[in-house]
Amino acid sequence: MISSTTIWIVIAAMGVGSFGLRFLFLGLIGDRDLPPWVLRHLRYTAVAVLPGLVAPLVMWPAATGGQTDSARLSAALVTLVVGYITKNILAAIFAGAAVLYLGLYLIG
Amino acid sequence: MSSQFDRSDFLRGMRDGAPFILVVGPFALLFGVLATEAGLSLVEVMTFSILVIAGAAQFTAIQLMSENAPTIVVIASALAVNLRMAMYSASLTPHLGALPFWKRAFAAYFLVDQSYALSALEYEKRPDMTLGQKTSYFFGTISLVAPNWYLWTLVGALVGQAIPPQLALDFAVPITFLAMIGPMLRTPAHVAAAFVSVTCAILFAFIPWNLGLIIAGIAGMMTGAQVELWTERKGTP
């Protein structure tokens, strides 16, 4: 169980931090331009963090005690491929969930 | 330039933003459910969604807190996911930067993926828009999305406890993230960044306190930027 203090620290820091990031240029820096190399790095933040977060969850799922599991692995691949091809987040989620439940049903 | 409210632009923004309810609703619902399952109280879940309004970062924080990652790693990783907001902010500044301070503060709070994407596209399509029209359109795009984000988080938090473990919701977060990653892989640079991030995260998974994720994030970001540079150089002989 996560402690309530931790939760509130995280909520407060993320509240301030997220607003800070959104307000940074619009509110404070105004019309000055960012150096191109900074913008170039900012473009890849989400695509650099999220895959790294997901990879261990897919490889070693907590629900199976860290054992790689074919139902979850195939669901992950299908989700990624459907998302890549259709560019539709909801379609990808539904496809992945369908494969997961089918896999869990077939494997038991 | 006047920043007067323009009703027709507000309504157009509202209409353009409406389809996103179909994405934001289920997303918020899932956040409410998972955060409640992770042990957050109703007040904590709602404060989280109202203060932060950023799905991916919120899921990141919940996931890492459930793994008992150190608080500083939770915050750093979740804010890293949100760094793109700074880019949105920079990109909208030439359009909305002339607004009075308090309106800029409101616009910043409501700067999310949907309002940014729609507004940036609209300002590009119709360069003759006045400041008032631009502002009205921006707030129009968020007028349905934000309330639905709050509402469906609440519904998720309320039903959260009633969901049986057989539903394998442990895998809802990975699937949601993977679904978001797919459409992000637009260029070779994005693919390379994601690939390096995955490789580093697996290789450095043994490092304590989830620091492997921080390494993966930095390595992925630098890879993306570098590959972009290479592709640009090749493109302009």
Describe the model.
The complex is a heterodimer of chains A (108) and B (237). Chain A has a domain of 53 residues. Chain A has 5 helices and no strands. The model of chain A has no long low-confidence stretch (mean pLDDT 88). The mean pLDDT of chain B is 90. Chain B is globular. The chains are: A mainly alpha (108), B mainly alpha (237). Chains A and B meet through α1, α2, α3, α4 and α5 of A and α2, α3, α4, α5 and α6 of B.
Biggest chain pair contact, residues each? A-B, 74 and 95 residues
Distance from first to last alpha carbon of chain B: 42 Å
**Could you tell me the radius of gyration of chain B in angstroms?**
20 Å
Question: Rg of chain A, please?
Answer: 19 Å
Mean of residue pLDDT values of chain A: 88
Q: Main beta sheet of chain A, described?
A: none
Helical residue percent band of chain B: over 70%
Strand tally of chain A: 0
Largest sheet composition of chain B: none
Q: How large is the share of residues in beta strands of chain A?
A: under 5%
Give the CA-based shape of chain A.
Answer: extended
Counting copies of identical and different chains, the oligomeric state is heterodimer
Shape of chain B: globular
Pattern of helices and strands of chain B:
HHHHHHHHHHHH
Give a nutshell description of this structure.
The complex is a heterodimer of chains A (108) and B (237). Chain A has 108 residues and is mainly alpha-helical.
Salient structural properties:
heterodimer; A: 108 residues; mainly alpha; 5 helices; B: 237 residues; 2 domains; globular
Topology:
The complex is a heterodimer of chains A (108) and B (237).
Chain A: H1 4-29, H2 36-42, H3 45-59, H4 70-86, H5 89-107
Helix pairs in contact in A: 4-5
Chain B: H1 7-17, H2 21-37, H3 42-52, H4 55-66, H5 71-81, H6 84-96, H7 101-109, H8 113-125, H9 131-160, H10 172-184, H11 188-203, H12 211-235
Helix pairs in contact in B: 1-9, 2-3, 2-4, 2-9, 3-9, 4-5, 5-12, 6-8, 8-9, 11-12
